[in-house]
């Protein structure tokens, strides 16, 4: 495992460790346990700048699912390094800021920092992953983490609404992007970004190339809040300000920009790419800037400002893609590559000044109790340091001390006038015109944000708190960012060949010749150029509009209405919910018979159509089957009789006994078929299941029977005959014809040679199909938590139409002296046998799953014989924590293989000479099996005890 892999894992590991440290040291703010992580990561990525700037891109691979081409391949180039520095650098400042912003006596700090670290790790995974499937996994994890962060104040309706909106829109885009990735795989046969870019000539004319591009762009536009998918970002401002400063200035909203930049080597040079990216970016720039100056809330203004600035960068990436067209045509493309240079430079500038302004808005809200600019003013005198940071940030946003990136934007827009391809002769004038108008609006809302907040008369009566300067720890992050904004404005060439040029080489890798580099020289003075006159015009017109802003009632009364797109979203969501309720109500009638009717009808239709569609005749030869013995005939007959007795039983206890009899007869069949593992598992599962049935039926009324005349029901007959016929023909078809040789020969041959185990069943569970087993115990864990939630989380009994019983439950215990006497011996025998099954399971019948069920059976016997109070005294274990520890053990065992460069859940074994034991075989699969053992014990006992306490 490389250092790059470790860098991605670090936030996730810290997310597990920090809450544990905070729990033990409550007096220390949880943020102090988190802060060292991003600082160390930032220092690591800083140390990589010289190597990457010199062209030393770095890649490392850890196999994951090699058979499907899915590996944990990380790749650090100029673009990935730039985003990694933004993620970790601004992340460090945000964590420091949050320590002073969030009160540890009022806020749930542990979940907050867990979500923040999950997001940081996911973002690092996005920008460093070379494999499309891994990138997609991290991409969706950013959506989940941002949902949790936006909904952090979940008691507020607006927070939940904003979180839901962001989740729905970004996940929708993520699904589209996933489909685009699959189309790219279909065209190239690989998930590697670098390998796909290397096959560009072979796929550019493919019929799936354009659909893949459109789907990928849909994912990028939803994440980066491009029009019309921008509507989630203003509502996401309900998140705590540290979240807004991190997600909505430097990381999450930039993920879409990263995706467009990363895929530019593949799609740039196409007219569709150029027009969609640059055109939609231009529209977003104009719309966001126009809506921004209408807002009265500081964070809402910054939200629309962010939308506008993201549109600007997106437009520049689109304009820069024209250089790839000229490269293909053999003409000089470097004139249009300046747009890409401007995009990278402004991306850095925007992260710095927008992070500053979000933190300033948070300080104003924190110290005054409001973000409404109509109530603010005159804060410069009481908050001079905050004002200084705001001054640097707003002037950078307005294009004053951030003049250089704005001038480069104007240069790129003016260069569009030179384009004589892709119908640009008709539309080229729109780029500089809209760029100038949007810049005027940008200057206007920047001045409104600064001067309406900090100058004028202090309106102390309208404020919830007496304003004062923020504490030093809260001031350091915005001051650092503001200082960087000023530094980058005065000394831009600090970034030229350290960050900007390597990033350009990643976005447009084919332009410089062999051994050549982009010329990145950013000068403060170019003379009286058209760009300078455009900037002067922006300042002049923007100043006039600002002076008129407070005087013209038409402008002053502009309100931030929800807008047509928001209303369309709300109505669409309500329509979907209404349709879902109607559809669900139509078939969820509460009738079990109807549910079985739906299930069996679908089953008959699906399987029958599949068999008929195969066009194959069912071949079945009785001569190839083993003879049926007398014992098998008797056992099957007992099973049939017991099954027929279940619906005829007069009491629930009798029905449970007949059901258990069926299961125990299946156990005997497994014994006859010489399948001891299956027999043990079936027997123990049946025992535990009978216990669960008894617990569930204990408090139900007696089973009532109604005497009704038997009537023939055609529907029932059709369903019954149909299910029987389909299952019979399916079984005969499966047994009579095999298209592939049996895989059992492989398992028998490789069980010991590859996995070191003679028990093939156990080896399959923990090694060959270990991933399936891990997912199965995860599902079991989710089921047990669901049962616990339904019973324990105080559901609204009135909404359920039930009246909660008001009684104190006293745990039952047996008064049977014989049972209690026998149990004292039997429990230890059962536990000893369960441990034997666990340790011997790799070579003899047994394993973690069977051993866990046997342990659960012993615990059930202990609780029945001596009562649950005594059980908790003897076994003081929180079984939900045991389940969680088991899942974690299984997962960490799988991850451990990465350390040795092996795929996930790879196992090894060896023979060692141990004291007293002598020559002993040790296998890493035993650790995984131990995780299974703990998880299954935790699941079984959690379910049994949860239901038992509810009786």
In brief, what are we looking at here?
With 951 residues, this protein is mainly alpha-helical. 70% of the residues lie in helices and 3% in strands.
Word description of this protein:
It contains 40 helices and four strands. With 951 residues, the protein is mainly α. The chain has a two-stranded antiparallel ribbon. The chain has a two-stranded antiparallel sheet with strand order 3-4. Strand 1 and strand 2 form a beta hairpin. Helix 29 runs antiparallel to helix 30 and helix 36 packs antiparallel against helix 37. The radius of gyration is 33 Å and the shape is elongated.
Keywords:
951 residues, two-stranded antiparallel ribbon, 40 helices
What is the arithmetic mean of pLDDT?
86
Termini, distance in Å?
51 Å
Number of strands: 4
Strand order of the largest sheet: 1-2
Rg value? 33 Å
Helical proportion, percent range? 55-70%
Output the structural class: mainly alpha
Characterize the overall form: elongated
Q: How many helical stretches?
A: 40
Q: Characterize the largest beta sheet: strand count, sense, and whether it forms a barrel.
A: 2 strands, antiparallel
Low-confidence stretches: 795-810
Determine the strand fraction and express it as a percent band. under 5%
